[in-house]
Design a protein that fits this description.
heterodimer, A: about 140 residues, mainly alpha, 2 domains, 6 helices, disordered N terminus, B: about 70 residues
Chain lengths: ~140, ~70
């Protein structure tokens, strides 16, 4: 392999820059569309950017000769997922039942937004359980 | 898990990036192993042992409290 080939191939740094850069631009596009009252264009930019960034994130490690991801990245993802689920579980088990009891007793009121957050977290936790079941079948 | 990867790598005159490329992992992974912040998978441990032509036990040593 020549020096030219080595320098022109996709490096881990470039890969991360591309994924985060395009993803960041997509989010900026969405926000700009929201602020400028161009909701459709903003959404289009966001979807396009996210799909391109997601595509590069998934496909580049498969096609590139360079090592863009390795076992340590997967370990980091595993730990991050564990922390996220742990937080969700602690929050769900320790706080939510108390909130519902206080709501029933008219001490507090669970608003629509709070209810949405609770439902989202519940769905996330449920989805984790399904994914755990799928993963268990392979180990 | 303690290891003498840094010494072995430097003895061969390799940079972290060069060793990483030889093993098919990232430089950050080699750095994390050398700093005892990451325990490699069995597969990578075997690759390391194979690269340095020694056994896994010669590179890695469990901590006393593990």
């Amino acid at each position: 392999m020549t020096a030219t080939n080595t320098s022109s191939k996709l490096t881990r740094q470039r890969y991360r820059g591309l994924v985060y850069g395009i993803g960041g631009l997509a989010i900026l596009g969405l926000l700009a569309g929201f602020i400028l009252n161009q909701h459709f264009v903003g959404t289009l930019i966001y979807l396009l950017g996210v799909w391109i960034a997601g595509g590069i994130a998934v496909l580049a490690p498969m096609w590139s000769e360079a090592t863009l991801q390795d076992e340590r990245d997967w370990e980091l993802h595993n730990r991050a997922s564990g922390i996220l689920v742990g937080i969700t579980m602690v929050f769900g088990l320790s706080i939510l039942p108390a909130l519902y009891v206080l709501d029933a007793g008219n001490y507090i009121e669970i608003t629509g937004i709070a209810s949405g957050v609770i439902l989202t977290l519940s769905a996330l936790f449920l989805l984790y359980g399904v994914c755990l079941g799928i993963a268990k079948r392979r180990i | 898990m303690k290891n003498d990867l840094t010494e072995r790598r430097e003895d061969e005159g390799l940079s972290q990036g060069e060793l990483a490329e030889a093993l098919g992992v990232t430089r950050q992974t080699i750095n994390a192993i050398e700093r005892n912040r990451y325990n490699p998978s069995l597969e990578l441990a075997f690759k390391l042992a194979d690269h340095f032509d020694c056994s896994i036990e010669e590179i890695f040593e469990p901590n006393q409290d593990e």
